[in-house]
UniProtKB/TrEMBL annotation:
Keywords: 2Fe-2S, DNA-binding, Iron, Iron-sulfur, Metal-binding, Transcription, Transcription regulation. GO terms for molecular function: 2 iron, 2 sulfur cluster binding; DNA binding; DNA-binding transcription factor activity; metal ion binding. PROSITE patterns: HTH_MERR_2 (PS50937). The lineage of its organism: Bacteria, Bacillati, Actinomycetota, Actinomycetes, Kitasatosporales. It comes from Streptomyces spinoverrucosus. SMART domains: HTH_MERR (SM00422). The keyword Metal-binding applies. This is Redox-sensitive transcriptional activator SoxR.
Length: 155
């Protein structure tokens, strides 16, 4: 990983990409979405403050666990004066996201368990396909390959 001299207070987009592991295009995207910001030089080149590195690390960590960019942006916007997230901020926010992640894991497990119904099917029916309409997985089903809702056994 390229080292950045301590005296350098601003990074070019290339330096930020090299240090953070994010592609330049991803950094431009984050900026367009208001997750990071830069100033422009006289030659219209972007310059990022050093703490943008931590901000990008925060964004990428949150994305890795499936947090949507809009949620990440809201979390960053709630920090006082939009400061760079600290260790405590990450601890607090990741804790708050736990139930959302648990929910998503549960849904993915359910999809995985019923994926065999879809293999080779191709219908993607909104009424019967658990992949096509996962939020309705426990809704009424009439026909076709479908999620089997557990029912108490008779007798
Ligand atoms: S593709 Fe999922 S049930 Fe047909």
């Amino acid at each position: 990983m390229p080292q950045i001299h301590e005296k350098i207070h601003e990074l070019t987009v290339g330096q930020l990409a090299a240090r953070s592991g994010a592609a330049v295009s991803a950094l431009h995207f984050y900026e367009a979405k208001g997750l990071i910001s830069s100033r422009r030089t006289a030659g219209n080149q972007r310059r990022y403050t050093r703490d943008t590195l931590r901000r990008v690390a925060f964004i990428r960590a949150a994305q890795r666990v499936g947090i949507p960019l809009a949620t990440i942006r809201e979390a960053l916007a709630e920090l006082p004066e939009e400061r760079t997230p600290t260790r405590d901020d990450w601890a607090r926010l990741s804790e708050a996201w736990r139930s959302e992640l648990d929910q998503r894991i549960k849904q993915l497990n359910r999809l995985r368990d019923h994926l065999t119904d879809c293999i080779g099917c191709g219908c993607l029916s909104l009424d019967t396909c658990v992949l096509s309409n996962p939020d309705d997985a426990f809704g009424e089903r009439l026909a076709g390959s479908r999620l089997l809702v557990e029912r108490p056994k008779a007798g």
